[in-house]
Design goal:
It is a single chain. The protein starts with about 30 loop residues before the first strand and ends with a strand. The chain has four domains: about 15-115, Immunoglobulin-like; about 130-210, Sandwich (Immunoglobulin-like), CATH 2.60.40; about 220-625, YVTN repeat-like/Quinoprotein amine dehydrogenase (Methylamine Dehydrogenase, Chain H), CATH 2.130.10; about 635-725, Immunoglobulin-like (Sandwich). It contains four helices and 58 strands. The protein has about 725 residues and is mainly beta. The strands form 13 sheets. The protein has a nine-stranded mixed beta sheet with strand order 20-21-50-49-48-44-45-46-47. Helices cover about 5% and strands about 40% of the residues. A hairpin with a 4-residue loop joins strand 34 (about 390-395) and strand 35.
Length: about 725
């Protein structure tokens, strides 16, 4: 008998005997200290223990299979698939968010806990100020709040604070990471007294200390000129009573737009002043005699007739040098030699650098009429008068080297010129290119200064190369044997414009070291004589040069020269700008702009006992006052989540190019770099949006904080009160 048995398993069938959809257990590692409202991604897990498709689903997050797109939709996985999950962390501190992933009947949870609140910032540092004026408002450096992840309480004792350049207050408030803070206080009314401002953020504090000088610092608060855009100061006497009644080509500025001017009596002493942009007050910062006596380096009978050199900024210092005899004769042989001086901006101290050199001078029996910096190599160069010798000062070593002059400039090279005494007019402006080469010129065709020097030797540019020494550039032709008097680089330091004292303008391009003649302004309105060009101010957009003329049969005036067209027009007579200052004979000053679009010139007469006037002139505002068809346009900037909005006032009928800078800072508020930029507000637009992406910022880990700053172009527009903002960087 044959018996057949058919046994069937309950709940299955013969085809499903080997099916397994339940994977081996898996797990996700929990994460702690996550940023608020941020995406957190788990470790990966690999599906195993199944032999067919198994359903997958998630709650509270998303999953990705084998690196593909994330999804929260139910699906299937197979053995060997890799799974990661992600979720968005909580918007609250110390809060846990979870997502649960299920494969078949097996589940695993991915937990993410947010960080704890941190309101204590990284340490910050305010730089103390010393030897300051009594009873005067002083503003600290700017610090950047870093190291906190939520708003933190800020308060101040003994002064006021401002956040992101806003209004100052002494009321407690809050700050967030990345915001900037400065403090201010009024210095003591007593000499040699220290007052403190203590700022506290989240329990971390630092003190801004201000110490007054041991004497009253001479100052002038300035006054308004005859029209909008003009302000006038008069240089005060030095503390020892010396009067500054002259200022020859001796106005300059630093990288923050602070203005420096030297004054001298042309007899015994020279004085340096600083115009503080924060309060608009002109203050004495030092003089040659006081600094040298402090360093025990002033000999009996010694004098410092002039700081004829433009105050030159480099690495936190402003440099000048003395010129004790400026005649084109042998009187210089009776001098001790010139001194280098520096003003330390941070310490507010004026030093005689040559006190540390051999003999206490830069070089014996040499006097400097101009200086220039080689910023790349940390050097200063100077040109002497009347010998026309080039000297070099190594700032790091504190040592001067007399380089001499081309042999062709020696009298012995021109035996046929018996009338020539070997001296000639020295250039008042020379320049250094990016290769470290120094370019210089010499001579004058004016009867007033010509000494019979060889014209064919001085009708082109000469140079000194740090490797090969002196050389001449016969293809760098001049419009006659006239030394360069004034000059200014464009804001990128790529193109230089320079002029002799007759207004012949030249262009030097650094990239290929090329030279060209630009042209000469049309001064045909002047009835007679050759005016002296001692004012030369290149607008930031490099389209206009403002030229000042004096010492001629025409009222002293500022003229506007259009570089592209060569057209010239009179901007204003000095008498229109200021009635009192215009009574003086001479105006001088080149490359001396502040950060608000004004340039500065000196105005004086020799030996008349009237202290030098300094005029700040905003050419755009003056144009609006002088020309009813010229519309005064203001440019403003406003921070947005995506970047910045640049807006203009007034008509939108023309496109307008707007200059800007992006300034990068470290955590202590020290500027690391400056990125130059330009944008265009097109026809019909009143504003333009710039994103942080379009601004091409460097990697975020290379800086702490960025500022967007609109730059006054000195030609088409002025700045709104709100033209600098902190960028919201990624």
């Amino acid at each position: 008998i044959l018996i057949l048995l058919n046994i069937t398993a309950c709940g299955s069938n013969s085809e499903d005997n080997n099916t397994d959809t339940q994977p081996n257990p898996f797990s996700f590692s929990s994460q702690e200290n996550a940023a608020l409202n941020s995406i957190s991604i788990s470790n990966s897990v690999t599906v195993s223990g199944i032999n067919t498709q198994s359903p997958i689903k998630i709650t509270g997050g998303e999953y990705s299979v084998n690196g593909n797109n994330y999804s929260d939709t139910n699906s299937f996985v197979v053995s060997g698939d890799t799974i990661i999950v992600r979720l968005t962390s909580s918007t609250e501190f110390l809060n846990t968010t979870r997502t649960v992933l299920s494969i078949g009947a097996i589940q695993a949870t991915f937990s993410v806990t947010t960080m704890a609140p941190d309101t204590a910032p990284n340490a910050f540092d305010f730089l103390d100020q010393n030897a300051v004026e009594q009873a005067t408002l002083y503003v600290s450096n700017t610090i950047i709040v870093s190291g906190i992840n939520t708003s933190s309480v800020i308060n101040v004792v003994g002064g006021e604070y401002a956040i992101d350049g806003g209004m100052y207050t002494n009321t407690a408030g809050t700050v967030t990471n990345g915001q900037t803070v400065s403090v201010r206080q009024t210095s003591s009314a007593l000499p040699s007294d220290t007052t403190d401002t203590v700022l506290t953020i989240g329990g971390i504090s630092d003190t801004f200390s201000v110490t007054t000088s041991n004497f009253t610092v001479p100052f002038d608060v300035g006054r308004a000129g005859n029209m909008d855009g003009v302000k006038v100061w008069q240089l005060p006497d030095a503390p020892n009573g010396d009067k500054p009644d002259q200022s020859w080509l001796a106005v300059g500025s630093d990288n923050e737009g602070e203005i420096y001017i030297s004054g001298h009596d042309h007899i015994s002493n020279s004085i340096l002043y600083r115009l503080h942009q924060a309060d608009g007050i002109l203050r004495w910062v030092g003089d040659a005699r006081t600094a040298s006596e402090t360093a025990d380096n002033w000999e009996f009978g010694e004098s410092a007739e002039k700081f004829h050199t433009r105050p030159t900024y480099h690495n936190g210092q402003v440099y000048v040098a003395t010129l004790d005899k400026s005649g084109m004769d042998s009187a210089y042989l009776n001098t001790r030699g010139f001194h280098w001086y520096s003003y330390d901006i941070l310490e507010n101290e004026f030093f005689d650098l040559s006190a540390f050199e051999q003999g206490g001078v830069g070089a014996q029996q040499i006097q400097l009429v101009t200086i220039q910096k080689d910023a790349k190599n940390n050097l200063l160069y100077g040109m002497s008068i009347p010998e026309n010798k080039l000297v070099r000062y190594d700032i790091a070593l504190g040592q001067t080297t007399v380089l001499g002059k081309p042999v062709e400039w020696e009298k012995s090279s021109h035996p046929s010129l018996s009338r020539w005494n070997g001296y000639f007019y020295s250039n008042r402006f020379m320049w250094v290119d990016s290769r470290g080469r120094v370019y210089f010129t010499g001579g004058s065709s004016r009867n007033q200064w010509n000494q019979g020097e060889p014209a064919s030797t001085l009708d082109h540019v000469w140079y000194h190369d740090p490797i090969n020494g002196f050389g001449e550039l016969t293809d760098f032709k001049l419009q006659g044997p006239n030394a360069m008097e004034v000059g200014q680089w464009d804001r990128a330091g790529e193109v230089l414009y320079t002029s002799d004292d007759q207004g012949n303008i030249y262009r030097f391009v650094d990239a290929d070291a090329s030279w060209s003649f630009v042209g000469k302004p049309d001064f045909s309105a002047i009835p007679s004589g050759i005016p002296k060009v001692w004012v030369f101010q290149l607008s930031a957009d490099a389209e206009k040069i403002y030229i000042g003329l004096s010492d001629v049969s025409y009222p002293n005036a500022i003229w506007e020269f259009d570089i592209a067209t060569g057209k010239t027009k009179e901007l204003a007579k000095l008498s229109e700008l200021d009635s009192q200052a215009s009574t003086q004979d001479f105006i001088t000053g080149y490359d001396s702009w502040d950060n608000n679009g004004s340039f500065y010139v000196s105005n004086f007469t020799m030996y008349n006992g009237v202290n030098v006037y300094m005029l700040g002139i905003n050419p755009v505002r003056v144009k609006a006052m002088q020309d009813s068809s010229f519309e005064l346009v203001e440019i403003a900037a406003q921070s947005t989540e995506a970047g910045v909005t640049v807006s203009r006032s007034g008509s939108v009928s023309d496109a307008l190019d707007v200059l800007y800078e992006i300034r990068l800072f470290d955590g202590q508020g020290v500027r690391l770099d400056t990125i130059l930029g330009e944008t265009t507000v097109n026809v019909g637009q009143s504003n333009i949006e710039l994103t942080t992406i379009s601004l091409n910022l460097p990697l975020a880990n290379t800086f702490n904080h960025a500022e967007f700053v609109v730059i006054a172009d000195g030609n088409d527009y002025v700045l709104s009160d709100v033209h600098k903002v902190v960028l919201e960087t990624p």
